[in-house]
Amino acid sequence: MIQRRNRIVLFLCCLLITLLFIPFVLGIQAKKAFTTNNLVRLHVIANSDKQQDQEVKFIVRDQVVEVLREQLNGAKNYQDALKIISKNRAQLASVAKEAVAAAGFSYPVRVELGHFAFPARAYGNVVMPQGEYEALRIVLGEGKGANWWCVLFPPLCFVDISGNALEYNGESAIVRETLAQQGIECDENEVDLRFRLLDWMRRDDGYLATDKSSK
Description:
Layout (H helix, E strand, L loop, with lengths): L1 H32 L6 E6 L5 H21 L6 H10 L1 H14 L6 E10 L2 E3 L2 E3 L2 E10 L6 E7 L3 E3 L5 E3 L3 H11 L6 H14 L14
Parallel strand pairs: 1-5
Antiparallel strand pairs: 1-6, 2-5, 3-4, 7-8
Helix pairs in contact: 1-5, 1-6, 2-4, 5-6
């Protein structure tokens, strides 16, 4: 009876170690997969922190994301996404300017596509290290207000009509696809397990998406 109990305890200990080790390894792989070289981010900077300017920022965001949602639907990889955004940058600038004008403001709008510095951030369960990322940056007016960012490709977030950032409900699928593109094979159940375990372990750790980041 004692030997049987010891075997059960040993089995449970091994199982626990395995469950803790899987998210650690996959976490390293995910961080390797999501780097400054395969993400395209959207960065919208408000004219100021005044309430009206912040509201305009979200109006511009909604209009631009709605256009990009359709345009990037056919993007198969990072390079495709960049080409599509670059090709349609003039249109995106027009959309942003029209949104500002419709809101009753006349300040200038600057739309840039290039490498810009971002601090380290966690978006849901995906950690993005500090560094320079390819981004579509929209600067409204003087660009001195709080800003909003999102990952355009892979499509880790969308925006609903209420103005809230929504996590993409296929996050684990995107992680698997991006890992595969980096030559890292990963079982679907392992990735899903990683997300469930990290949700449990990081419940109060603050690993949440944010709608503000430093310029």
